[in-house]
Amino acid sequence: MYKLTIFLLFLFSASILPALNSNDLIYKTAANVNPTVTPTPDSSSDSVSIELDRDITSRPCPPGYKCRGNCDDNMSIVVTISDAKSENNLLDYNYTVSGGRIVGEGSKVNWDLTGAAPGTYKITVGVVDKSRTQLQTATKIITVQECEDGGDCVCPALSVDAPASLTQAGETMIFTANVKGGAADDLTYNWIISDGQITEGQGTPVIKVATNSKMAGKTVTATVEISGVCEVCPKTETGTGKIATKKRKKK
């Protein structure tokens, strides 16, 4: 009887086991331990793409020139990332550029190429989801070219106004740089004085110069140097102001 029971159990097991699939066993085991699965890219989705508002940009018109065309005063390129896909749509965008700098964040940024020399530059974006899984990468090339039409150089008239009358020692002198006409753009000013001290206005068209009693009878020369005009234009000019020999008596 015992042997018969063992034999029947053997036959029952042999008839049941072939109906079980080995994959089902593995799935059920995995389900029981409730594993954490790292998301993987959806192979059926489109790859990420980079769109630039232009593929070629030109350097700005040179300082002091009036250009007729083919020059970009704004070398900031609008960059838009599209087709990046994730199950939760929580994405990070990592940008790498071979020149210039990225301004902003997310799927739409500005690529600032101000000051970039003529040549080709590359931008690469890597898109990752919040689990730090790499989804897609893409690369784009832009060409920076020299301003083809330098235009005409028109020099401005530069002069310096100084105090018209004597300045008493210890009082303040004011010098003013005048730039008229021409194609000057984004001018900068640098002042040098022969005596006294600039107390206000360095870097601007108007400066104030403090004098003292030891400067009585002297002449103060103020020289301004400007930039922002083309190379062939005059860039410096001077003005002079005189200080009275004796301090004026108070009444």
Describe the structure.
The structure is a single chain. It contains 2 helices and 17 strands. It is mostly beta strands and 251 residues long. It folds into 2 domains: 49-145, Immunoglobulins (Immunoglobulin-like), CATH 2.60.40.10; 154-242, Immunoglobulins (Immunoglobulin-like, Sandwich), CATH 2.60.40. The strands form 5 sheets. It has a 4-stranded antiparallel β-sheet, with no helix packed on it. Strands 2-9-8-5 form a 4-stranded mixed β-sheet, with no helix packed on it. Strand 6 and strand 7 form a beta hairpin.
Short summary of the structure?
The chain is mostly beta strands and 251 residues long.
- Percent of residues in beta strands? 35-45%
Biggest sheet strand order reads 1-4-7-6
Low-confidence stretches: 8-46
Number of strands: 17
Q: Main traits of this protein?
A:
about 250 residues, mainly beta, Immunoglobulin-like, four-stranded antiparallel sheet, four-stranded mixed sheet, elongated
Task: Set out the fold topology.
Elements (H helix, E strand, L loop, with lengths): L1 H15 L5 H12 L15 E4 L3 E3 L6 E2 L9 E7 L8 E7 L3 E3 L4 E5 L6 E11 L4 E12 L6 E2 L3 E5 L10 E9 L7 E6 L3 E4 L5 E5 L8 E9 L8 E7 L9
Parallel strand pairs: 2-9
Antiparallel strand pairs: 1-4, 3-10, 4-7, 5-8, 6-7, 8-9, 11-12, 12-15, 13-16, 14-15, 16-17
